[in-house]
Amino acid sequence: IARQPSISPLNTDTPLDYASQVARLEAVKSGSPRRLTLTEKLLYSHLIISPEHRWTLDSIHRGKTSLRLRPDRVACHDATATMALLQFISAGLPKVAIPTTVHSDHLIVARNGAEDDLKRAELEYREVYEFLSSAAKKYGIGFWRPGSGIIHTTIFENYTFPGGLIIGTDSHTPNAGGMGMLGIGVGGSDAVDAMAGMPWELQCPKVVGIRLTGRLSGWASSKDIICKLAGILTVSGGKGKVIEFFGPGTQTLGATAMATVCNMSAEIGSTSCIFPYSEFMSRYLSATKRADIASLADIYKDILLTADEGSEQHYDEIIDLDLDTLEPHINGPFTPDLSHPLSQLKVAVSRSDWPVKVSHAMVGSCTNSSYEDLEKTKQLVNQAKSAGLHRVTTPFMVTPGSETIRATAEADGILQVLRDAGAVVLSNSCGPCVGQWDRTDVNVKERERNTVVSSFNRNFVGRHDSNPETCSFVTSPEMVTAFAYAGRIDFNPMTDSIPVGGSTQQLRFAPPTSVELPTNFSIGKDTYQAPQNDTAGLFVEIDPKSNRLQLLRPFDAWKQGSAKSMHILVKVRGKCTTDHISPAGPWYKYRGHLENISNNMLLAASNAFLPSDYSNMLGHAVHPLKQAPTILPIPEVARDIRDSGARWCIIGDWNYGEGSSREHAALEPRFLGGVAVIARSFARIHETNLKKQGMLPLTFDDAADYDRITKGDRITLVGVE
Ligand code: F3S
Questions:
Q1: Which residues pair with 714 in a beta bridge?
Q2: Ligand 1 atom at minimum distance from 266 CA
Q3: CATH number at residue 470
Q4: Structure pTM?
């Protein structure tokens, strides 16, 4: 090998060290002939080996052993980075110990289109961006300014490499699996452990093998792989598991198409999702100026970057998926695992009360905003144009995933075609995917019922526009585009046509063809602030009067008796995601200010203990310290109990805390005097976040005990002192 490449062209001082990874792997195997899955290879080759921790295959038990790992890098976005950096500042260290980046993608509100929206965000969030930029400079972190792109897309283009391990403070970090890199979503304090050079701990996951055969054709896309799997495995079916793809079908998908699958694996609650190294990955690396990584990966392909032949027997479960027969899927509303094969959608719509008319169609998000996605969208727009339909019939928004994709799609004429057809091109950011949408086409305040369809990954209640009556469906970008012309959610482009104006002519779409990569990626605007070497004279300023940023103070230490006779603040009924526990949208501005953001705690949750007249009211609780039944917002009740010196707990339902990695959902209850969340079950990242912030996440031994807890009960935890 002539030259050892670095892990990224933007981290030239960190070599890509496959040889050391293989050495660690061999040490763990210690001569065992056992075949390894790809997940095992990637996890074990990142173990921290020390005299106290000599790992062997026999000493590691899936679902039990806590692995101590050293990731190759850490990434945070602007909505989680403020809190992560505030925690890092508390650690008192001069610099991060491993390559770290911060990405400004979550705070830009979609309203008029890219330029205007970006300018507004820069004004509105100036204080937060300045804090992130100065903290990044001070602590040796790479900073991607607003407009750079969505965190996972930027990572994919610049930092992913086969065989790597990345942790990120965002649940869609598994996106990196499209490049054969294990990506795992974590809370900010986990990220800070790794940034501080401490071992990052992960309970050794189980491994689900997905045997892919066949090849995609027609309207089927990689999005349908994961939409179908979501229907099979449900939102909690992947908990504690890595979804590992194998079989000949894995060698037929483009890198960004595989990233789509891995990205949305977060919707089944999986720890991560991974594809084996392939020629498509190699081509993508070369197209993004990393041919040297591809050359080295070619050498380590068998030993490190693919599963051993014959390792199938070591999957905990195998699911077969034939791409030849895969149908397009549309998932929703309100949960990503409500999966409808296209051929059954019409019937499902006719049996439902979902509005048939589509009020908005959206292509974008970290799941589906690649060059290939935008190119397919353009093909359908051109088909419509040729048939005489010059504009979409439904409001249509399109988001390029990154500045590189935007610049390339602009140079290749894609964005102009979309704009000419009436699409609004948004800034390279999350926007409506994360509730950053200043929506005016429906009456959000009055909760106007409506249907939206997007290429996003997540469709929980109120996710995009805070309107609990928005029925949101997720599907592939090509299906979204077809819906944008048909204007109906019961449209099937494989069988239905669209009338063209007053004429007798009909538009029948042909499925678009995949263009894996552009001829050339354009560079676009320079939006990157590189980490600095000499940071000694730099300071991070926080205005003590700021209502957006607040230095962290240690929580009160545990007091004897805190878990005795606790009030039940709320008994959560049904789905309670991190969007319910710490809603996003207008609350983003307080993500760096624990006191202020705590005013949103559980505001979207449904409380089973409200009197029947109030049972549909969200985010409220009966105040236990007031005489007459007084119903108040949950954060207010929590604060009053805390200030009275008493303590409280939450009763949770199934999969409590599913969804994102936001640790505010764990910090807020601790800050407001909570002791425990007792649930039927937890989502992985939230359970870890609660532990890290000193909240007890407890699971009922018997899930039916949830029903035995009634109004007015007090809870005492025995044996926790
Ligand atoms: Fe952003 Fe939505 Fe992805 S919030 S990181 S685009 S899931």
A1: 567
A2: 7
A3: 3.30.499.10
A4: 0.92
